[in-house]
Amino acid sequence: MTAYLLKRLVIAALTLVLASMVVFAVMEVLPGDPARLMLGLNATADQVEVLRNQMGLNAPLALRYLHWAGGLLSLDFGRSYTYSVPVIDLVRERIAVSLPLALIALALSTIIAIPVGVFSASRQGRAGDTLAMGASQLGVAVPNFWFALMLIYLFAVWLRLVPAGGFPGWNAGIWAALKSLILPAIALALPQAAILARVARSALIEVLNEDYIRTARAKGLPYRAVLWRHALRNAMIPVLTILGLQFAFLLAGTIIIENVFYLPGLGRLIFQAITQRDLIVVESIVMLLVAAVILINLLVDFSYAIVDPRLRGRQ
Amino acid sequence: MKLWKTTLAAAVLSLAAATSAFAARTDLTLGIVLEPPHLDPTAGAAAAIGEITYANVFEGLTRIDDNGQVQPGLAESWTVSDDGKVYTFKLHAGVKFHNGSAFSADDVKFSLDRARAKDSLNPQKQLFAHITDVTAVDPATVKVTLDGPQGDFLYNMGLVAAVIVGKGSADGNKDKPIGTGPFKLDHWAKGAEITLVKNPDYWGTQAALDKATFRIVPDAAAAVPALLSGDIQAFANMPAQDALAQLQSDPRFSVVIGATEGETILSINNKKPPFDKLAVRQALASAIDRSAIIAAASNGLGKPIGSHFSPGDAGYVDLTGVYPHDIAKAKEYLKEAGLENGFSATIKLPPVPYARDGGQVIQSQLKDIGVNLQIIPVEWAEWLSQVFTNKDYDLTIVSHVEPNDIDIYSRPGYYFQYDNPKFNDVIKALGTTVDKDKRLELLGEAQKILAHDVPAVYLFELPKIGVWDAKLQGMWTNWPIEADDLTKVKWTD
C-alpha cells in the first residue's frame, strides 16, 4: 500500500511539472498583448513598452517560466496583470462560490441519479425503466443554458422565490447565499444526474447478472436486500469514476451556467483572464485545477478501496 | 356602512401614497456587461472604468454633459490668455477627497504632470502632450500653459482620462479609488458587483441616490430576466438583442435609444493592394447597403453615417449620399481598377455582435460585385495584435467609440495605413483653431475628404440602448462619453 501510494505521488508530481510546461507554452503562443489590451487604442507604442517592462513581459522566455514555476513551488501564484492583486486572492474569492456550488450540484445529482439507476435496473425493460431512461436521455440532450433560463423565468421572474442571478457573498448570510446557488446547482445537477443514472443502471444490470446474486437470492435473501446491499455496492466503482470526473468539471467547467446566473465563479475568472490575456492568472489557475484533478483522482482511487475490500490487499 | 368602507379605503390609500412619497427609493442596481479590470481612469482604457467612476467618483477640471457640452467641473471658471496659450482655472473651494484630505491646486498640478510624464501610462497621454507647464498659483488657482492654442483643450480636460486624482492617494486608485465626486466606493466583490455609496461631504449638490450597485451581467440572455425580476433596475446600454421589442411593449420599463460616439466602420488596409486603389475603395462603398447592415447588426437602431463623425455632434455633415448603394456603379469602379472579375480578400471580425452580424451581411453584399470575402473571427486580443498593431489584415469591422476622434486618420502608423497630406493639413489647422465657426468649417472639410476618399467604409453610429425602470429619472440618454453619470438620477413614484 505504501509503495503504491508513493508511486502514485511521484506520477502526480511529474504530471504537474509536465502540465506546467504545456500550460506555459500554450499561453505563450496565444496571440495578443496584455499591455496593449490594458492601454487601449490611443496609447503610444512607447507606453505599451513601458507597461510590458513593468509586467516583466520582456524578459526571456525560459527566465519567465522559471520565475513563475519557482513561485508556484513556494505557493506564490503571482499577481494578476489586469486586477493587479495576487492571483491567490482572486482564486480564494471565486472558490467560495465554485466549490459550494460544485458540492451542492454533485450531491443533488447523486441523490437523484442513484435511486433512478437502481429503480431502472431492477425493472429492466419494463415501462418504469423505459420512462426513466427516456427522461435521462432528455436530461442529457437538453442544453443546460436553456434549462437554466427556464428555471430563472419560472422561479425568479414568475414566482419570485429566488434572485435571477448574482451572488451576494457569504457575508450577506448563509441563506441569502444559498438561495442564489439553488437554481444554478439544479441546472448543473440535472444533466449530470442523467448521465450518472445511466451509468449506475448499466453497472447494476451487469452485477445483477452475476452468479453470486443468484446465490444470494437462492439462499433466501429478499430482493431488496440483495439489490441495495450486495449489488449496488459492487456497481459503485464506475459510478465513483464518473463522479470524480463530474466534480472536476463542476469546479471550473461551468462557465455557461456562471454566465447565465452571472455568478463570480472560477470558470468565469479563467474565461475573463483568457480574453484579457491575463496570462499569469490563466497559468496559475490551470495549474491549481490540474492539482485538484490529480487529487480527486487519488481520492477516487482510495474510495475504490473502501467500497471494494479486495483492492485494499493489492500492492 | 358602505360609505364608511369607502372612506376607510380612501384614507388607507392616501396614507399609502403619502408614505411612499416620503420613502422614495434611494438605491439602484445597474447592470453592466464587462467588469472593469480596475477603477483608475488615468491608468486603463477599459470603457467600464469610466462608466462607473466618471462624474460619480472622479471629477475633472471641466465635465462633459449628456449633450457633449463642456461644463464647469472642479474648476468653477477659467480665463484664456489672448494668444490662447495660457488657461487660468479658478477652483471650487471646500472640496475634499473621499479620504478626507483637502483638494487644492497642488492636486491639479500633480494629476496633469503625472498624465504627461515620460513614463505615464495614461491611456490618452497624447491629450496632455501640448501642456508645457502647470503652475499652482495659489491653492485655488491653477495656470496651465500650452505650446500653442488648442481648440479642444477644455473639452479634453473633461474626458475620463483627465480626472483629477489626489496627490497622496493616486497610487491606490486601481483598487480603492479616492476621488472628489458625489459617490465613493463602498465595496467591490470581484466578478460580481461594485457598490458606490453617497459621499456625505460632497462639495456640490448632493446625489439623490444613497447607494448604487453596478452588477456584472456578462450574458445577454441573463439581462432580460434580471430586469423582469426586478433584481436589476437599469441598463445604461443593454445587450437587448431580440428582447428589445418585448421590453418596449412593457409599461414597467423605459426604453431610450440614444446616440454614442461609436462610428462603426468597415476599416480598410489602405496600403495593401488592391485597396490602395481609390476605385476599389469606391467600389466597396457603392456595393454596401447600409440599411441592411443596420438591420442585422444593430436591430435597425443605428444611424447611417457617410463619414467618421457622429450625427449628434455639432458640425455634422450628412454625407451618406456620396456613394449611394449602386451595384452597377460599383462594378464600373472595379473595372476602372482593372478588377472586373472581382477579387478575394479576408475580413477579420472581433467578438462583438455588430461586427459578427454585420460582417456576414457585408460578405453577401460584396459577393454581388464579385468580391469574395473570407470571414476570420478573432478575439479582441488577436484583433489588437494582428489588426491594430501589426496591420495584418485586409478588412475589419470595428466601432471607434472615442469621442471627437476624426484625427485618427492623420495619425502616423495608425492601422488604416492612410496617409493623405490634404487631410493631415486640415487636422493640423483644426488642432490650433479656437474660433468656433472656423472649427466647424474645418470639421466639415475633414468629413468630406474622408467621405470621398473612402479610407474606410462608413456604416452606422452605434446606438445606446438604455433600458430602465419607468420610475427612474435622470439617466443619460446619449453617450457623448461612456459614463453612467448618476448625479441627477432619482426615483419617482
Task: Provide an overview of this structure.
The complex is a heterodimer of chains A (315) and B (493). Chain A has 315 residues and is an all-alpha fold. Chain A contains 15 helices and no strands. In chain A, helix 5 runs antiparallel to helix 6 and helix 5 crosses helix 8. The longest helix of chain A is centred in the first third of the chain and has 36 residues. Chain A starts with a helix and ends with a helix. Chain B has 493 residues and is an alpha+beta fold. In chain B, strands 1, 8, 9, 10, 11, 12, 13, 14, 15, 16 and 17 form an 11-stranded mixed beta sheet that branches. In chain B, strands 4-5-7-6 form a 4-stranded antiparallel beta sheet, with helices on one face. A two-stranded antiparallel sheet of chain B has the order 2-3. Chain B starts with a helix and ends with a strand.
How far apart the termini of chain B lie comes to 32 Å
Low-confidence stretches of chain B: 8-21
Cα end-to-end separation of chain A:
6 Å
What is the fourth-level CATH superfamily of the largest domain in chain A? MetI-like
The value of Rg of chain A in angstroms is 24 Å
Number of helices of chain A: 15
- Helix and strand element order of chain A: HHHHHHHHHHHHHHH
Structural class of the helix and strand makeup of chain A?
Answer: mainly alpha
Strands of chain B, count: 19
**How many β strands of chain A by DSSP?**
0
Counting copies of identical and different chains, the oligomeric state is: heterodimer
Helical content of chain B stands at: 25-40%
State the shape of chain B: globular
Integer average pLDDT of chain B: 92
Text of the CATH class of the largest domain in chain A: Mainly Alpha
Low-confidence stretches of chain A: none
Which fold name fills CATH's third level, the topology of the largest domain in chain A?
MetI-like fold
**Measured on Cα atoms, how large is the radius of gyration of chain B?**
25 Å
**Number of separate helices of chain B:** 13
Helix content of chain A: over 70%
